[in-house]
Predict the 3D structure of the following.
Amino acid sequence: MAFTRAWRNFKRMQDMTVAVASLIYAAAAVHGFSRLPGDATMVLRWILLWPLLYLLPSLVAPLVIPPLRRWLAKYVWMSFQAGFGQTPGSIVTGLILLMGAALFIYWQIAAVAATGTYRANVFAAYAAGIGILAAQAVLVRTLERLPDVRARITEPEA
């Protein structure tokens, strides 16, 4: 049993979104470590510790709390039906959104470096977003095991 091309593209796009978002985060963390004021412990806390405390609940909660799981699974299914990750336009739109978030992080790093004042932790917000993206990628695999979804995303047998 083979999945439709649309489903394979969608699943691939979900995975690539998590990977690209994570790489952007890693690059911003390296960039921030060399520019943010304070000692190494404070910067590591700002870039790694607090964001981890946001990433974990945003990843785990939608997978273990049934109402959140149903809501996010429905969102993932609607994203597939809307064509996300299946057309060049939707891929470019996704990349533009990720790049916008990346520019925002770099802008915040520059603002903190210039003023020496830490405001809201943009790293924590971005990490929470990565957690939700990763939960969506997991839910794609969960959805494809549901019989009614499977019937819609598999190629008819010849």
Notes: The radius of gyration is 18 Å. The mean pLDDT is 92. The first helix runs from residue 5 to 35.
